């Protein structure tokens, strides 16, 4: 369907230094992205310009240099660390005689490799189709234009129009299927909200160690690797937190600077776990020299997906790579935990996260003194089952005096079960 050279595993990377901060990319991140996609970088071409060239993005001389590198190194793909327009991509392919991929296309390729679930695959395909639809070219020259006259009348549309129509149809089909998935997720979320189970969502820059932390906290075997976008499909696990009760911990896709808009749109259902969380654990790789800009990028994406107002607890991960850094909890002026310093890989300081979660989600606890008549033995048994009785006494009249500490969720459930009559027994 598309006029494209065959891609391969040996690449020439191209990085351009632009003065505008908004257009800047990191060369070391391009190397990581390329290796995460399974591509071997044979050479790197760097350049500096005040603004991109409309024809090649780089200057025409630099484009020739890239083509020479491709030929000399026998590379079969050129990867740009920037977003290219469809025209720039085609012009570069013409001069380099091989496939040219921009940063967005590379990220989409990694996502396509990583998608495991049916939903993840649909979301990636949707993002790819939206990206490709802007890059359609007339690959079928014999149908390049509609012709008239005897023996020259075509089917009424060019091959390009046919391709666009097929892509539009496929996008509509995927959107319908994703809508079903979104409704199922909505039902699950509503059920958790009805049960008033708090959701804690892990967010952070890609490769910050979210999945390793998730595995350490939940003792599960979610795929974790030292590469970008190791996690694509959201994973949910139940956790028990002392004095809080049951919570849901969600592991989500990592963010990256200039995350393609097609991806943000496609992963709307997945990112909703982040939007509707009670607390975000913002995982930061403190050993990364770009940690501050990574934090800013995550904040930017959170704002973009309407999750900027969700309360955050920062997890400063990978302290084992720093000298003299010990696990600890940093607090604000009110004594509320705001940062926890840990190493998920070395399993150091994880108990401090649970302590901080207990404090951050703990205000949803109730401390009560109940005076129950002997006839309320069933309620007493339920309170012991919930492990919420801290002390018990019997007064002279035989009434049970119980000191109770339990989550607001469990208390509200009990209130509902006893038709809101429990207030009568509070001392």
UniProtKB/TrEMBL annotation:
Can you name one GO molecular function term for this protein?
guanosine tetraphosphate binding
Q: Which Pfam families match?
A: GTP-bdg_M (PF16360), GTP-bdg_N (PF13167), MMR_HSR1 (PF01926)
Q: How does it assemble?
A: Monomer. Associates with the 50S ribosomal subunit.
**Highest taxon of source:** Bacteria
Q: Which cofactors must be present for this protein to function?
A: Mg(2+)
What the record says about family reads: Belongs to the TRAFAC class OBG-HflX-like GTPase superfamily. HflX GTPase family.
Q: Do you know which HAMAP family this protein is assigned to?
A: GTPase_HflX
- The Hflx-type G domain extends over 198-365
Q: Which SUPFAM superfamilies match?
A: EF-G C-terminal domain-like (SSF54980), P-loop containing nucleoside triphosphate hydrolases (SSF52540)
The entry's Mg(2+)-binding residues are 211, 231
Where primarily located? cytoplasm
Q: Where in the cell is it found?
A: Cytoplasm
Under InterPro entries, the record lists:
EFG_III/V (IPR035647), G_HFLX_dom (IPR030394), GTP-bd (IPR006073), GTP-bd_M (IPR032305), GTPase_HflX (IPR016496), GTPase_HflX_N (IPR025121), GTPase_HflX_N_sf (IPR042108), P-loop_NTPase (IPR027417)
What does this chain do?
A: GTPase that associates with the 50S ribosomal subunit and may have a role during protein synthesis or ribosome biogenesis.
Q: Which GO terms describe its cellular component?
A: cytoplasm
The UniProt keyword set, sorted, is: Cytoplasm, GTP-binding, Magnesium, Metal-binding, Nucleotide-binding
UniProt-annotated binding residues for GTP? 204-211, 229-233, 251-254, 317-320, 343-345
Under what name is this protein listed? GTPase HflX
């Amino acid at each position: 369907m598309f006029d494209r050279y065959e891609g391969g595993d040996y690449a020439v990377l191209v990085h351009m230094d632009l003065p505008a901060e908004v257009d800047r990319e990191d060369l070391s991140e391009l190397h990581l992205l390329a290796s995460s996609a399974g591509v071997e970088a044979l050479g790197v071409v760097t350049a500096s310009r005040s603004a991109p060239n409309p024809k090649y993005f780089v200057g025409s001389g630099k484009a020739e240099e890239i083509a020479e590198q491709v030929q000399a190194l026998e590379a079969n793909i050129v990867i740009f660390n920037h977003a290219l327009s469809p025209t720039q991509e085609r012009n570069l392919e013409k001069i380099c005689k091989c496939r040219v991929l921009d940063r967005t296309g590379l990220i989409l390729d990694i996502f396509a490799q990583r998608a495991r679930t049916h939903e993840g695959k649909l979301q990636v395909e949707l993002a790819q189709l939206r990206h490709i639809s802007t890059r359609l070219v007339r690959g079928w020259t014999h149908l390049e234009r509609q012709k008239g006259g005897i023996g020259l009348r075509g089917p009424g549309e060019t091959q390009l129009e046919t391709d666009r129509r097929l892509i539009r149809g496929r996008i509509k089909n995927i959107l319908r299927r994703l809508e079903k998935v979104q409704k199922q997720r909505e039902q699950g979320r509503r059920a958790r909200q009805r049960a008033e189970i708090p959701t804690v969502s892990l967010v952070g820059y890609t490769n910050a160690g979210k999945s390793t932390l998730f595995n350490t906290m939940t003792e599960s075997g979610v795929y974790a690797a030292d590469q970008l976008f190791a996690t694509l499909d959201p994973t949910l696990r139940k956790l028990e937190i002392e004095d809080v009760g049951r919570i849901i911990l969600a592991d989500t896709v990592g963010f990256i600077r200039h995350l393609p808009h097609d991806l943000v749109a496609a992963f709307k259902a997945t990112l909703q776990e982040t939007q509707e969380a009670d607390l975000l654990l913002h995982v930061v790789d403190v050993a990364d020299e770009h940690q501050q800009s990574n934090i800013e990028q995550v904040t930017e994406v959170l704002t973009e997906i309407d999750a900027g107002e969700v309360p955050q607890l920062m997890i400063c991960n990978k302290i084992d790579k720093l000298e003299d850094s010990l696990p600890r909890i940093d607090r604000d002026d009110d004594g509320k935990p705001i940062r926890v310093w840990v190493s998920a890989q070395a399993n150091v300081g994880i108990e401090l996260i649970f302590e901080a979660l207990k404090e951050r989600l703990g205000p949803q606890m109730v401390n009560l003194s109940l005076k129950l008549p002997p006839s309320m033995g069933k309620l007493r048994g339920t309170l012991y089952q919930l492990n919420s009785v801290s002390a018990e006494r019997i007064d002279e009249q035989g009434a049970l005096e119980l000191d109770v500490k339990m989550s607001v969720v469990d208390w509200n459930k009990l209130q509902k079960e006893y038709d809101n009559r429990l207030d009568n027994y509070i001392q």
